[in-house]
C-alpha cells in the first residue's frame, strides 16, 4: 500500500519520489541525478529543484559522499499524521472531519499517537507566534492546563486559543488584543477541549 502523499508535496515531486523508490528496489542503490533526469525525461536543473523540494519536506536526504548518497526517508505509515483542514485562529470556521492530506511532523513530535494536524486561518494567535497558514500539530485529549494552547469547541465550531484561569473561571483567550476572550464553565472543560497544540511549523511559499 503506497504511503499517503505528504501535505505540501506536489504530484510531480511524488512522481519523482516513486521513481526513486522503484530504482532503489530494483538496483539496491540510489540513483544519480543524471539517472533521475533520464528516467523522468527532465533536465538536471529540474532534478535538483525536485530533490530540493522533497528534502525540504523530509521525504529524502541528500548526502555529500558521492553521486549515490541520496537517501529516502523510511518509517512506519502511522508516523504521518492526518491534516484535518483549516481551523480558525480568529473567526469561527469548522474544521474538516475527513483528512485532506497527510504531513510528517519530523522531529517536532516524537509520539504521534492521537496526533492530527490543522492549518490556521486568522491572526488572533500571532502573539504566540502562530500565523495565518501555519500547521499546528494537536494531540487529541480532553484535559489541558491553564496556559496551554488548545483546540476547543465553541458554539459548534473549532477554534485555537490559549486556556486561562482567572479565579474560578476558565477563558479561551487570543494572543491578539483585537479579539475578545471567551468564557467557558469549569465543568465544561472536558466537553469543550478537542486537543492540545504540541508543536507548529510553517511552510514558506515562493
Could you explain how this protein is built, in words?
The chain is α+β, with helices and mostly antiparallel strands. The protein folds into 2 domains: 11-72, Arc Repressor Mutant, subunit A, CATH 1.10.10.10; 79-201, Ribbon (Umud Fragment, subunit A). Helix content is 20%, strand content 30%. The protein has helices at residues 11-27, 33-40, 44-56, 189-192; strands at 60-62, 70-72, 81-88, 102-103, 115-121, 135-140, 149-154, 157-166, 169-173, 182-184, 193-201. A hairpin with a 2-residue loop joins strand 7 and strand 8 (157-166). Helix 1 crosses helix 3 and helix 2 packs across helix 3. The chain is elongated, with a radius of gyration of 21 Å. It starts with 10 loop residues before the first helix and ends in a 5-residue tail after the last strand.
Number of E strands:
11
Which structural class do you get from the secondary structure elements?
alpha+beta
Q: How many whole angstroms does the radius of gyration measure?
A: 21 Å
State the shape: elongated
Average pLDDT over all residues: 83
Quaternary structure state of the chains depicted: single chain
Reported by name, the CATH topology of the largest domain is Umud Fragment, subunit A
Low-confidence sequence ranges: none
| Number of individual domains | 2
Q: Please state the second-level CATH architecture of the largest domain.
A: Ribbon
* Most strands sheet: 9 strands, mixed
Total of helices: 4
Query: Would you state the CATH class of the largest domain?
Result: Mainly Beta
- Biggest sheet strand order reads 4-3-5-6-11-7-8-9-10
Helix content: 10-25%
Full CATH superfamily name of the largest domain = Umud Fragment, subunit A
Q: Which strand-content bin applies to the residues? A: 25-35%
Amino acid at each position: 500500500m503506497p504511503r499517503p502523499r505528504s501535505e505540501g508535496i506536489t504530484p510531480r515531486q511524488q512522481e519523482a519520489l516513486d521513481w526513486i523508490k522503484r530504482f532503489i528496489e530494483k538496483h539496491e542503490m540510489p540513483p544519480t541525478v543524471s539517472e533521475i533526469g533520464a528516467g523522468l525525461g527532465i533536465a538536471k536543473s529540474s532534478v535538483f529543484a525536485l530533490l530540493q523540494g522533497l528534502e525540504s519536506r523530509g521525504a529524502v536526504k541528500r548526502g555529500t559522499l558521492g553521486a549515490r548518497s541520496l537517501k529516502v526517508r523510511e518509517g512506519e505509515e502511522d508516523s504521518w499524521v492526518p491534516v484535518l483542514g483549516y481551523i480558525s485562529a480568529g473567526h469561527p470556521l469548522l474544521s474538516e472531519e475527513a483528512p485532506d492530506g497527510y504531513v510528517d511532523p519530523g522531529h517536532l513530535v516524537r509520539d504521534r499517537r492521537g496526533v492530527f494536524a490543522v492549518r490556521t486561518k486568522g491572526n488572533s494567535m500571532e502573539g504566540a507566534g502562530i500565523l495565518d497558514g501555519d500547521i499546528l500539530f494537536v494531540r487529541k485529549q480532553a484535559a489541558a492546563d491553564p496556559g496551554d494552547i488548545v483546540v476547543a469547541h465553541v458554539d459548534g465550531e473549532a477554534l485555537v486559543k490559549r486556556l486561562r484561569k482567572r479565579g474560578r473561571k476558565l477563558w479561551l483567550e487570543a494572543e491578539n488584543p483585537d479579539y475578545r476572550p471567551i468564557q467557558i464553565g469549569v465543568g465544561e472543560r472536558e466537553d469543550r477541549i478537542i486537543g492540545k497544540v504540541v508543536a507548529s511549523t510553517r511552510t514558506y511559499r515562493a
